[in-house]
Amino acid sequence: xxxxxxxxxxxxxxxxxxxxxxxxxxxxxxxxxxxxxxxxxxxxxxxxxxxxxxxxxxxxxxxxxxxxxxxxxxxxxxxxxxxxxxxxxxxxxxxxxxxxxxxxxxxxxxxxxxxxxxxxxxxxxxxxxxxxxxxxxxxxxxxxxxxxxxxxxxxxxxxxxxxxxxxxxxxxxxxxxxxxxxx
Length: 183
What we know:
Number of domains: 1
Radius of gyration: 20 Å
């Protein structure tokens, strides 16, 4: 694995480095979810005393981690691309393709954030305007659906900003740098 694939892409800027470091928190969330599941198995099968909260908590932690993973891959420039075309073009064309991909992804992230905002307003406020977070409806009934939707909204905003930073930095970089930053 190259040194470049172990950290944020240089074009991702300061935000990319912050996002990259934040990945450790969400990786710890997956480890915590695994520990909770292990505890749940132990409590259920050894003491015949399952919890009400384990399944929803692990689903919540893993869901947040997966959402953050999309932002994390953007900061590392490790998103999916059609390399058959990308690898066949020269550095100058790659630079412009990186700019175009970043701008299109910025637009898509913005549209998704707008759509997500509609979901967030419905999950945080009643039709009368009173604040009430949407809950899961289970016996434990935590507000995890509202929290996940709010987190998704924030991730999409951060992703749009990250794509803007990438587009600007790809435009500012010399054409021959395109080869150095490919994931």
